[in-house]
Design goal:
Layout: E1 19-27, E2 31-39, H1 47-62, E3 71-79
Antiparallel strand pairs: 1-2, 1-3
Length: about 80
């Protein structure tokens, strides 16, 4: 999710986002899925809005429609700069 505005991830190389995220989803007794990436929220974006966008990105990235019912096992959104 590398962008200067709040957009979904692309495969084209871009500047790293201002934040790094990791999210793990699980459908009990079926499967789990983890994805990571960088993200630059638009000015004024709330943490809840960022989570909702990243959650939707994770579901889409899984390629599995059953992940739409997944539980979130882990979510982290931290500044990307060390």
């Amino acid at each position: 999710m590398d962008t200067q505005t709040d957009q979904a991830a692309t495969t084209a190389p871009q500047e790293p986002g201002t934040h790094f995220f990791a999210i793990t989803l699980e459908v009990p007794t079926y499967a789990s899925f983890t994805t990571t990436g960088s993200y630059t929220p638009a000015p004024g974006t709330t943490r809840e809005q960022a989570f909702t966008r990243i959650y939707a990105h994770a579901i889409d990235s899984s390629g599995d429609p059953r992940m739409r019912t997944a539980n979130v096992l882990f979510f982290s959104l931290e500044p990307n700069e060390l």
